[in-house]
């Protein structure tokens, strides 16, 4: 329970960090591509956050015991309160904190949900900043990752599979954030993300390493089932 609390609190820190990074990577007077070239360390940090987020959520999705164990803890708290008893653990995770944590872990991909909400909130709160500045930053990062994954001269520089997995997670992460904040999403024809190319790159990898990422695109995006999504893209994700 204490470990689950640490991850929940870390998600709140990630939320604040992501909004600060978005502000730094989208603010005038530079265009998104200029920002990514000028602030490469910040772009790398953004990528690291997405890499961790997708890694965490993949593990969470394959461990249903997390929610079962936490539900048992909450029932134990309630039962002890009726008997005027208190667990030592309650000093660290009281009923109010347990309620917030429960909502967090009830999500299929809790960290990604946190970042999606943070990105959406960033866009809605910064009304003077054109939404294209944010979406262009995300689509540019997706394009860079796709090119690195599909171009032989880049791929030959990857010394291990971890680097490829890093690029794939970052690519999927920015696609999902883009889909949450763009009015028509990442799958429409007008999208600045080459979704066919991105999905094709993922499908070329061993299925055991990308199934979680494909599931993230299937189940955590907002616009996949919209009328604007082509049948070809839907078929690729089936």
Automatic annotation (TrEMBL):
Domain CYRIA/CYRIB Rac1 binding: 1-234
Main location: membrane
Aminoacyl-tRNA synthetase recorded as keyword: no
InterPro entries with a match to the protein in the record: CYRI, CYRIA/CYRIB_Rac1-bd
Keywords for the protein's UniProt record, in alphabetical order: Lipoprotein, Membrane
GO biological process: regulation of actin filament polymerization
Keyword Membrane: yes
Sequence similarity: Belongs to the CYRI family.
Name under which the protein is recorded: Family with sequence similarity 49 member A, like
Species this chain originates from: Poecilia reticulata
């Amino acid at each position: 329970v204490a470990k689950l609390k640490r991850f929940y609190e870390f998600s709140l820190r990630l939320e604040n960090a992501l909004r600060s990074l978005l502000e730094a990577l989208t603010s005038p007077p530079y265009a998104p591509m200029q920002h990514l070239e000028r602030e490469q360390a910040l772009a790398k940090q953004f990528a690291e956050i997405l890499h961790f987020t997708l890694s965490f959520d993949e593990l969470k999705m394959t461990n249903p015991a997390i929610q079962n164990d936490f539900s048992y803890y909450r029932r134990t708290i309630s039962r002890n309160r009726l008997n005027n008893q208190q667990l030592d653990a309650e000093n660290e995770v009281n009923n109010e904190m347990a309620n917030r944590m429960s909502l967090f872990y009830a999500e299929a991909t809790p960290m990604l949900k946190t970042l999606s909400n943070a990105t959406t909130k960033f866009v809605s709160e910064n009304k003077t900043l054109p939404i294209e500045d944010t979406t262009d930053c995300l689509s540019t990062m997706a394009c860079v990752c796709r090119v690195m994954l599909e171009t032989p001269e880049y791929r030959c520089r990857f010394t291990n599979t971890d680097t490829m997995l890093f690029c794939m997670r970052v690519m999927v992460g920015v696609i999902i954030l883009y889909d949450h904040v763009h009015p028509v999403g990442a799958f429409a024809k007008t999208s600045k993300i080459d979704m066919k190319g991105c999905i094709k790159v993922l499908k070329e990898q061993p299925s055991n390493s990308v199934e979680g990422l494909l599931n993230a695109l299937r189940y955590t995006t907002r616009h996949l089932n919209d009328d604007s999504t082509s049948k070809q893209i839907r078929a690729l994700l089936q």
